[in-house]
Amino acid sequence: AQKITQTQPGMFVQEKEAVTLDCTYDTSDQSYGLFWYKQPSSGEMIFLIYQGSYDEQNATEGRYSLNFQKARKSANLVISASQLGDSAMYFCAMRLGRAQKLVFGQGTRLTINP
Amino acid sequence: DAGITQSPRYKITETGRQVTLMCHQTWSHSYMFWYRQDLGHGLRLIYYSAAADITDKGEVPDGYVVSRSKTENFPLTLESATRSQTSVYFCASSEFFMGQMNTEAFFGQGTRLTVV
Question: Three-class SS of residue A88?
């Protein structure tokens, strides 16, 4: 089975605060990749960050970091110093080494309040 | 222009009609995907393709047909459209390198389909 679960349908955060978006995954494969995408109100899908199952360090890309806890099968996205432009839908996704198909979670709508 | 394009961007069709959504990518990526996006469900994988003439079912394939005769094109056909297929459809493409997992998928702009 290959499943991604995002349990937070919506989150509200004050500007400049850090925010953590939760993502848990389910797979019996040892080789997999985890991705986070942002979808602003305009609708396009924007790739944010990637974490490989064999990566020993947590991935970071600017204000984005991925808190990867392999034993707990979680891959939470952390956004530091949130900005109004961070308001969007955020999707967690997983790709298995074998099948290579890319499966997404239900998404979390993040709203940054001024 | 390089990229991945979907057409049409908007489509209204009647129940029972056949409709085809087009997807074209210029990178020659091996993998292509079709998703539908519905409120509360996120993006659900309909079909995907590893290469020309190789396709496989995703999570919600019923009522859809795909083909991939050329690497760059991956059309999605609704054989007999139903109201439950009203959705936003996204096509995506991704390269594949053996042993590498970090190739992200690039998405088209989406097609908003309404079945009345």
Answer: strand
A102 to B109: CB separation less than 8 angstroms, yes or no: no
Cβ contact B76:B58 at 8 Å: no
**CB B41, CB B105: distance < 8 Å:** no
Sign of the C-alpha dihedral computed for residues B42, B48, B50 and B56 taken in this order: positive
pLDDT digits (tens, 9 = 90+) for A2-16: 899 999 999 999 999
Using left for φ > 0, alpha for ψ between -120 and 50, and beta otherwise, residue B53 falls in: left
Q: What are phi and psi of B83, to 5 degrees?
A: -60, -30
Here the tokens at position A77 are 């996205």
Out of A9, A32, A45, closest to residue B107 by CB? A45
pLDDT one-digit tens code per residue, B48-107: 999 999 999 999 999 999 999 999 999 999 999 999 999 999 999 998 776 666 778 899
Complete DSSP assignment for A28-49? --S-EEEEEEEE-TT---EEEE
